[in-house]
Amino acid sequence: MKSLSLFALAAPAQAALRFGCSTLTIQRLDPIVEPGGLPSAHLHQIVGGNAFNATMDGDVGERGSCTTCTFSEDFSNYWTAVMFFKHANGTYKRVPIMQNTALPNGINGGMTVYYTQQDFNSNGNQKITAFKPGFRMTVGSPTTGSLSDAKGHIGLRFVCLQDKGTRFPELPDFPTKACKGGIMTVHHFPSCWDGKNLDSPDHQAHMYATTKEAFAAAGACPASHPVRMPQVAYETLWDTTQFDKLWPADGSNPFVLSYGDTKGYGTHADYLFGWKGDSLQRAMDDKCMFNACENGKPLKSQNVAAMNKCAVKTMVNENLDGWLHSMPGQKM
Ligand SMILES: *[C@@H]1O[C@H](CO)[C@@H](O)[C@H](O)[C@H]1NC(C)=O
Ligand SMILES: *[C@@H]1O[C@H](CO)[C@@H](O)[C@H](O)[C@H]1NC(C)=O
């Protein structure tokens, strides 16, 4: 009995966030890896706050005035590469993004973003420290060149969707046949911080991953990176169905990521923190789960129409639609 009541006194907070963000913009911009680059080397799809720009320094959470995410104090930016279909005749068409299941209807493309504590049901009875203003990180690397290296990137996966609810199996590379419900890309970020650096030269060394596959509980943080941060993850659903009948006769995968990756080994993602004030920390200290965190309990939220309305201006003027002779910025 004694231990039970002690446990009750020390009841851990168990907040976990899962929310939709509609597409903010699709442009060749990358304020983390190529700050100031107009354009950056390859195309990204970006969601989140409207302070998004070619260069982003300082406290983004204080600069945003709207966001494409459900939580209206989240001016963070979240982005990944873009998927294209390569036709046998050598031209490319951008694969549209569709909204995820279990989110409110009408979200324009975008991503599902997670901030979990350890897994879906527990924070592992530990303090979760929110990111600080200026914090940023990337996961994965576009130069990953082999299947074994891709397998080593735990949490960076592809799912061949039968419908929007399919979650397994998780693949380290592109599916090898047409997927009835589209393709989902999944990106889990590391959650152990060195406690000092908001960034690092490779945008990764200040973080350490103890991530397991899927949303399984992560391992303990090492002494070098002792501070447990939220476990950030993205799900992006690519609507490949219009290309089902155009699969090449030899069965080779016709999809390619915007930096010229036909295998998917180099799948990667970027995160730039921008929650206003202490809003993310208040959520992590709460007990709310998913949409129960909305409507001021404890986070301010907004409806889909407000999410879809938020935008940034076009800074890189290039055509992304129809059949293109090459992907933006790519020779192939
Ligand atoms: C983006 O950066 C440019 C150049 O520094 C600046 O003029 C512009 O106001 C910025 N836009 C936003 C939305 O912060
Ligand atoms: C390639 O195929 C697409 C789809 O059938 C077609 O619309 C486009 O005109 C073709 N382009 C070339 C250069 O053949």
From TrEMBL:
Domain of life where this protein originates: Eukaryota
Cited Pfam families: DUF1996
Listed InterPro entries: DUF1996
Keywords: Signal
The DUF1996 domain, residue ranges: 30-275
Keyword hit for Cytoplasm: no
Leader sequence residues: 1-15
Protein's name according to its UniProt entry: DUF1996 domain-containing protein
Organism: Lasiosphaeris hirsuta
